[in-house]
Each structure stands twice: as structure tokens, then as C-alpha cells.
Amino acid sequence: MLKNIIIPAFLVALTVVSTAQAQKSNSYELASPGGINKIKFNLDKSAPKYEVSHGKIQVITPSDMGFMLKNNEDFSSNFEITNVKKSTFDETWEQVWGEKKNIRNHYNQLVVQLQQKDKNKRKLEIQFRAYDDGIAFRYVYPKQETKDSIFIMDEKTTFNLKEDGKAWWIPANRENRDEYLFKDAPVSTLDTVLTPLTIESKSGLALSFHEANLKDFASMTLVNNIGTQLKSDLVPWADGVKVRVKDTFTSSWRTLQIGEKPADLITSYLILNLNDPNKLGNVNYFKPYKYFGIWWGMHIGKYTFWESDKQGATTKRAEEYMDFTAKEGFHHLLIEGWNKGWTPAWYENKMHMFSFTKSADNFDLEKVVEYGNKKGVALIGYHETGSNLINYLKEVDDAFALYKKLGMHSVKIGHVGSKLNMKENHFGQFGVNYFRYILEKAAQYDLAVLYHESIKDTGERRTFPNMISREAARGQEYNAWSEGNPPNHLTIIPFTRLLSGPMDFTPGIFDVEVKQGFPSKRVHGTTAQQLALYLTIYAPIQMMADLPENYEGKPALQFLKDVPTDWEDTKVLEGKIGEYITTARKDRNSADWYLGTITNEKARDVNVSLSFLDPKVTYEAQIYADAEGTDETHNPSAVAISKKTVKASDVLKLHLGGAGGTAIRFKKI
Ligand code: CA
């Protein structure tokens, strides 16, 4: 659709439509470029209000805006409009790497400048953007007449949903941060929830609330207080203040993506569009990749993170893993537990003292890196902070400098713990600023960052393409040591968590019964489904999480060799939240397409129309499916591999076992 209208960045059209006359009206309307989404702004008895509609459907009825400052100073009413500006913007920009190469950023904007009529005469600017795939607004507190420290005690923004709907939610402000299973419930029954919050509305729209470009501000969570009204609930500092700034602030964009069906949300790039353009240029030190790790062995109890006779990270094992990585034609290896400071109780909430420069006794970092250089295998660095940031921030420059000296260009940084420094919430302004500080520092050392136990993604990768992936959800590791992720988890997260950005889910377990692990712990799905996850979950780096011995000699490993992690385009062919999803992606570096389809616990027959393929090309479909009779509990590791010549006019009939899936490479012939 966009092929013919790609505009080079220097021809960006920024048209000021009108600088409206001040004071003439208190009501303004902003429509998206295609007219489908509309925002109405109104100053109602001196209080700013907005509402949102999609076509003929009213989505948000008049809702509150503004803040409560310290000393109960109300910053949500007693305003007058001083200026209003409307503009339109249209550009198509290229992602350095991503799920889609060229992204169109096309919106209409309304900027309303307000000033309070009392003695403080505080100014507030509200910026609204209307896109055809949703709406967004943010608050700018411009420089005022007098210098001041601002303490935001509460955000008053509400989202008054016109009607109830089924919300897919995880709780906010809990011990395990965002590592919870999604549940569904009517909006009207929610407590405090994290975003992205995805809602299937009664009139059939797919909605998702989130935020974009979050910096030097608190994360927004949502709370339901009355009826179907959601209210912004900023994550506070330990002392209860929500945001503390000097002189001026810009909130993150409050976003509402709107689709006709849930699959539309996945191919909406609104969050990325609301972030600033690339500040780093071409990050030549990072190219998307797939990686093995000395990692799963620790989670299933085969190895330890800490120094013991079962320690995972030894020089010897590192060299064996590098041999395996090189033999199978891969180039990246993660090693956890390589450094000093690990203890059997490392994950407990204590101010653990890890070293980020000193190797464990049985591990020689320099030697391992050198061995990798000979084998063409790059080591991915690993820092587990244990959320002791006082310790980490003291060492981080030396630690990054060490990686730079050794020629390493990726680092995974973990933050296990309920609170940062046992005090501050990961999602509060303190955490927001910490995660951005480390990201920008890593860029100075040519390091790409993979965050675990992090704050949520708000599209930072557009501005900082060294922000490659993060966990920020319940990943594969839960299958190693807990009751595990139920099969529907994987059919929910593409419509919820993954809307915020790439996830390091760590797919690719071939021995889904985890025979070397803890009794009764296992992956609740089939091996073919694990292959399909490389398509249904987007990330520029994807782990192949299993032990080398479980890949050795398995024909299905060929799919992991072939599947790229950098895409020209992405299409979600069908999907029902919690039930199934089918995703097709085109390789950025060849004419090939790939497809992944997965189902929840129910077996499913899928007819896939191949109309997304190039009609002028013939393809060989290389199909990795659940073998006959395979499902979660019957022979779950059996993958049936077949080949078929296909064209765009064909329809493929596939059978997915319960908790199963199919992965396909369409190779141009
Ligand atoms: Ca984790």
C-alpha cells in the first residue's frame, strides 16, 4: 500500500494548517488523515476535556486532563486558552532493523496552549495527534515566568470508555513486576493494571492503551475507579511523589491504538512513530542475530549460576558451546554466571554485590573471547545487577569499557528484585531515568542492550537502535521451575505485551518435556509450536534456548538456521486473543517469506491463503508441523517436515495439535 508514496526524510511535509485565533472558541476537533479517528478538545468550565471517536462509534466520552501538584494545588482547571495550533505531518522513515522496513508516520496535530487564571499563572500545553490507527496526547509544562521545582502528586487524566469490553490485563505494583499471566475480565471490574492494556470493546473494536517515549517521568498504569472509567495512576517514588522535575517537563504520550480487529494492533506502528528519530545513526556494531546460551541448564537445575562443581559458566563449557555454535553455523553465545558475586540465594531481595569485571575462578573471560574470535563466535556480555544499582552504577563504566576492549557489542542486563535498591519501583521515575541512562551510556561504548526485569518498552528503539530487546513479561524460564506458562499465554502476548516492542522470550526448546529438568516441570506446548514462535514473537535477537545436546542431529534445527530476525514486512493473517495467531513475515535480505501459526490448548485446522506471497514467484514451502497425533501430552517433540511447491493463489491446509503450531519457510525457486 505504501510502496508508491515513500518520501525521503528530507522531503517531510510539515504543514501548518492554521494558527487559530485565541479565545474565540473553547472547542476544537482534530481528525486523523483518513478521517476515521477524531479527537474533540473542549474547555469545559475552565477545565480541559477530550473525547475520542472511531467512525460513528464514540470510544471515549468527555474525560479529564491535568495534574495535582504539591500542597493540593489543582493543575486541571481554572484555565483559559492562549493559543491553538494545527498541523499535519507525513513522512516514511526506515527502521535500521525491525519487523517492517519502511514505516509511514502520518498524523494531524492539535496543540492547545493553556494558562491558569489564578495568581501563579501556570502554563500547560497539550499536544494531540490523530492517526488512522489511533490517537495520542501528551502534556508539556513549558518554562514559566518563575523558576520552580515541580512535584506531581497525581495525574488526573481519565479515559472514560463509552462501553464495557473484555480487557486482557496483568496487575501493576506487584512483587514480580510484569511477570504475570494475563487474564481477561470486563473493564468495569479491573483494579490497577499495567499497560499495554488491550480491550475488545462491546462494539467489536480492538483497543490498546499504552504510552510512548517515556523519559524523566513516571510510568503510567491504569486504575478503574468507577464504571468503565480508567484513570492514569503514575507509579510513585518511595516517598509517594509521582514525578519530581525542575522548571519544565514533557510527559510520555498517552496512546490509544484502535483497530477493527485485534490483529490490526500488531501492525500499528503508532508507538514507534511517537518516538524521536534515530539519534545514533547506523549502529554498525549491531546486526540482528540468533544466539545460544549457557542459560537453560541453570534454570532446569542441571548447572548452577554460582561457583560449584555444577557451575554452568566454566571456560571448558564455554569452549564446548562455542564449538557447537560454530559447527552449526551460528555466531553468538550468551554466558550467564561468568563473574564473581553469585550465590545460591542470588535472586533474593538483598543488596547482592556482583562484580562486573572479575571472572569466577573457573572462567577466563579473555581466553573465552579469544577462543570465540578464532571460531567466529561473539560473546554476549551479561550483567545481573540484582537490582543493586548503587553497586552497578559504580562499576558500569569499567564494565562497559572491559567489553569494548574485548570487542564485545551486546550486553544483557538483569534486574532481579522487587524494588531497585530495595526501595524504588522499577516503573517509577527513578527506574525510567536509570534505564535510559544505561541505554545512552551503552551507546557510548558501542554496546547493544538487552534488558531483563526492566521497565516496559515505550518505543525507545526508534531513537536508540542499540535498544534491541527486553524481557518485561513472563518468559520461557517459567517453564523450567514453575507451574509453567499455560498454552494460551503465547496466544495472548502478541496482542498485549508485544505491542510495546520486541521481547526476549527465549523460544526454541526442542525437548519440551525437559527430561533433564525438575520433575513435572515442562514446556506446555509442542516443539513445532516452539519453531512457530520465531514468527509470532518479534525480536531482532532470538535465543535458541535449549541445551546443545537437544539440538544435535535434529532435522528441525534447519528451520532455526534459516529463519531471519530482521524483516522487510509483517502481516498478521488471523488471530483471536487467547486462541490462535498466524503471522507471516518477509525476510529483509531475500525474497523468502516465513510463517508461524500457533494455537492454545485446542487442536485446530487452519486454511492459510498464500495471497501475501509475490504472485510472480513460485516457492518451495518447507513445512515444520506437529507430527500426526502430536499435541502437548502426546509425543510433543515430534516434528513432521515436508516440502511442497506453492504459489500465491494456493491455500495451505494445516493441522495444529493442542498447544501446537506450524512453522514454514517459503523459499523462492
Ligand atoms: Ca527474568
UniProtKB/TrEMBL annotation:
<comment type="subunit">
    <text>Monomer.</text>
</comment>
<dbReference type="Pfam" id="PF14508">
    <property type="entry name" value="GH97_N"/>
</dbReference>
<dbReference type="InterPro" id="IPR014718">
    <property type="entry name" value="GH-type_carb-bd"/>
</dbReference>
<dbReference type="Pfam" id="PF14509">
    <property type="entry name" value="GH97_C"/>
</dbReference>
<feature type="domain" description="Glycosyl-hydrolase 97 catalytic">
    <location>
        <begin position="295"/>
        <end position="473"/>
    </location>
</feature>
<dbReference type="InterPro" id="IPR029486">
    <property type="entry name" value="GH97_N"/>
</dbReference>
<protein>
    <submittedName>
        <fullName>Alpha-glucosidase</fullName>
    </submittedName>
</protein>
<dbReference type="InterPro" id="IPR019563">
    <property type="entry name" value="GH97_catalytic"/>
</dbReference>
<dbReference type="InterPro" id="IPR052720">
    <property type="entry name" value="Glycosyl_hydrolase_97"/>
</dbReference>
<feature type="domain" description="Glycosyl-hydrolase 97 N-terminal">
    <location>
        <begin position="30"/>
        <end position="277"/>
    </location>
</feature>
<dbReference type="Pfam" id="PF10566">
    <property type="entry name" value="Glyco_hydro_97"/>
</dbReference>
<keyword id="KW-0106">Calcium</keyword>
<keyword id="KW-0732">Signal</keyword>
<feature type="domain" description="Glycosyl-hydrolase 97 C-terminal oligomerisation">
    <location>
        <begin position="566"/>
        <end position="667"/>
    </location>
</feature>
<dbReference type="InterPro" id="IPR013785">
    <property type="entry name" value="Aldolase_TIM"/>
</dbReference>
<dbReference type="InterPro" id="IPR029483">
    <property type="entry name" value="GH97_C"/>
</dbReference>
<feature type="signal peptide">
    <location>
        <begin position="1"/>
        <end position="22"/>
    </location>
</feature>
